[in-house]
Every structure is written in C-alpha cells, then in structure tokens.
Amino acid sequence: MKKYILPTVLAAIALASAGYAWNRWQSSHAHDGLISGNGRIEATEVDVATVFAGRVAKILVDEGDMVTAGQKLAFMQIDSLQAQRQEAEAEHTRATHAVTSARAQVVLRESEYASMQANIALRDAELDAAERRLARSQTLSREGASSEQELDDDSARVRGAQAALQAARSQASAAFAGVEAAQAQVVGMESATEAALATIQRVDAAIQDSLLTAPRSGRVQFRLVQPGEVIAAGGKLLNLIDLTDVYINFFLPEVESARVRLGSEVRILLDIAPDIVIPAAVSFISSTAQFTPKTVETAAERQKLMFKVKARIAPEVLQRHLAQVKTGLAGVAWIKVDPDRDWPAHLQLPAGQSGIGAMPANSHSASDSAL
Questions:
Q1: Which of 46, 104, 159, 186 has its CA at 20 to 30 Å from residue 195's CA atom?
Q2: 8 A C-beta contact, residue 311 and residue 248
C-alpha cells in the first residue's frame, strides 16, 4: 500500500506546482496591453471676483449650492457708481445745450459773413463808379471843360472807395474766421457730449459688473467673503467647481508614457468604490518629464522622472450624476494601450451602459460617493 502512496503524493505535488505556475503566469499576463497610474479626481475651478474695489452688498448662494451659467451670485454696493452716473448725465445735458448754443453761433457768424460779402459788393460798385467819374473828369480837365477842383474831388472819391473796399474785405475775413471758430466750438461741444455719453456707458458697465453672475454651471465650493466686507479690485468672493469638467491626474514612467496616445481609453477605479468603473479618455500628456511627486507611489521606485497624464471623464457621463461628483478622491487609472485587447472583467462596463460604471443594485451607498 505504501508503494502507491508516494507516487500519489508526488503527482499531487506536481499538479499543485503546475496550478501555481499557471496562476502566476495568468496573473502576470492578466494586464497585458494595460498600464496604470495612481492619481486623484480633480475638476476645473473658477473664481468669481469683482472687477472694481468696493463693499460686498449681498451674497445670494451658499457653499454646496448648484448654480447655472449666468445665475446671479452676489451684488456689490453701487452708491458711488450711481452718483457718478448722475454726474455724467448732468455733464451730458450741459454739453448737449452747449452744442445747441454753438450751432446758433455758427448761424449768426455765417449771417455776419454774408452781410460782409454784400458790403464788399457795395464798396466794389462804389469804387467802380468813382473810377468812371474820375476818368471823365480827367478827360474834361484836359479839354479845359472841367476845373482842377473837380478832378481833385473825383480822385479823392476813388481813394476813399478803395479804402472802404479794403475795410469791407478785412471785415469779411474777420467774419469768416468767426464762422470757423464757431464751427470748431460746435465740434468741441459735440466731443464733450460724446465724452459724457461714454462716461455714462462706462459707469453703466461698472454697475453691471457689480452684479456677479456664474461664468459657468457648477457647484459653489467656497464662500470667501461675507456681506459688508470691503475688497480690492479683483478680490475673490466665491469659488466654483465645474462638475462637467472632471478628470484624473496621474504620472507614468517614461517607458509607459511613450505607449499612451491622446484619446486612449481609460477606466478609473476609486479607492472608496473599487466596484464602480468610471470610463474616461486621455486628454493630456505632458511633453516634458518631472520628478516624481511625493504623493505618487510607483511600482519601480528607481523611476525618478515621470510624465503627467490627464484623463477626462466625458461631460455627458458626469451630467447624469452631478449629485455624486466629488473631487480629491484617490484612485487608479487603467489605460488600454493595445486596441485589440479586451478590458478584463473587473474593468468592463455593463452591456449597453456608457455611464458611470457598474452599479449593482445593492451598492447605492457606494455610488453616492463614487466621485
């Protein structure tokens, strides 16, 4: 009997060894075509800040509130801006009346210039008549039919008409200069009107900027000030997190990062919910290496230079689970670098489901904190 026991034991040991070797080989090849990296879930953050310095009048949201793009979030105090607008409106009214007055001055100066032009024509006619009279007097004087006195009088009349014509032309030039000055004044007043209108528009823009709205949809993460506080220009009031732009940042060694391409499929398993598979895609690969961050653990500690990779979760996936999305959670990102290789069972999504991973009926509590 004993002679059969030893072969049986040896056969059992051989089978066990073979099974162990097969399991080791299968385990070592289970993730062929896949690489992984440790990281944390992050999301795009947006600060809501004031353009101008001032006092916070009211904040309409609290931390944790969901907001939509364009929603009113806070008001800044605008008493000084309203006073500036009233001042600008008064200046605009004054400048408008000044334009009307300047235009009336242009009409008056143009009328004076027209009168001067008529006076020139009159003086020119008088000079022509005086010159004709002088010509006749000169003829009669040579024939002895006219006295020297009459000739002298006619010569004096010509010189007087010439002087009057010159004076009329000088007055017309002065009147024309007055027209140009009045027109320039109109331009100046119109410019003042436009400047006052621009000031009104600038103040209106400042008043509009005093109403702070959400630049995008998301969740209020932090309230940084309270109503009544005075903040400087660019001061932050709120911090929003965009729950439709969520990604995981992780680091890969040089050899592995070279196999990753933009758009590569990614499956994310979070430490707090390892049974939930989150689909994503590679959206960024660093072009330069950096030293391994202290928070990243790698299988090969001797790999000191790593490449940062970002995998973005599809917005349509997140949109259906906004209430579940959280950031800062640690997890593992698995990347399929061999397109012909199927995902292993623990990384596959349920048939016909492209949403956030496998959610068994009895794992609702885990899904509530999946992201």
A1: 104
A2: yes
